[in-house]
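Duplicate of earlier report; glutathione transferase input re-posted below.
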Amino acid sequence: MAGGGDELKLLGTWFSPFVSRVKFVFHLKGLSYENIEEDLKNKSELLLKSNPAIKKVPVLFHNGKPLCESMIIVEYIDETFAGVGPSVVPTDAYERAVARFWVSYIDNKLVAPWFQVFRSKSMEEKAEGLKQIFVAVMVLEEAFKECSKGRPFFGGDNAGIVDIALGSQLGWVRASQALSGIKLFDPAKTPLLAAWAERFLALDAAKASMPEFGRLIEYAKMRQAESDAANAAAI
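Output:
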């Protein structure tokens, strides 16, 4: 990889899909960076100082200056290193606005209820979260048809910011399917998204940025056991 004279450091956790978004763009563009692993159970002074508002990863340090929020970082990298590797943000203003809408939709209508399902204590909340998730998946199936115009990705011939926003979740989607049987991208119901997911995961940048599946499964089991124990103690 080549990073020129720029110093790029990424503060994150190996299992975070939001950190994977940033890593994907680094690898897509061939940019060198230093990975700094954060312990979210014992947050470092570096994290607390660099992201005091929400105290979450990822945090990008570009020549010592911190920047937070995964998709903001993705767009920043794309603009700052324009001409280095493929671009992921549409150049056309309208297409860029549409892409940003779908990124927001993914985070608010798919990712947010996903957290609700696996963190909530009541079956009613879990059921409502799953209902919202499956509605969002069907909407995204139609969105893919509209955005891709018959090409392989939301971004057209190459992966763009919508692909990155959704594709970064695929590790956890598959881990959850293996553990709970919940299948989000079903070839029978959402054939376009199912085929898209296979294409995304086959990308070199995806292979380099996504967490190793076996390790993710073990981590997910541990988190589920901790959550079950906490819920049982609260009863």
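The first strand starts at residue 8 and ends at 12.

Merging into the original ticket.
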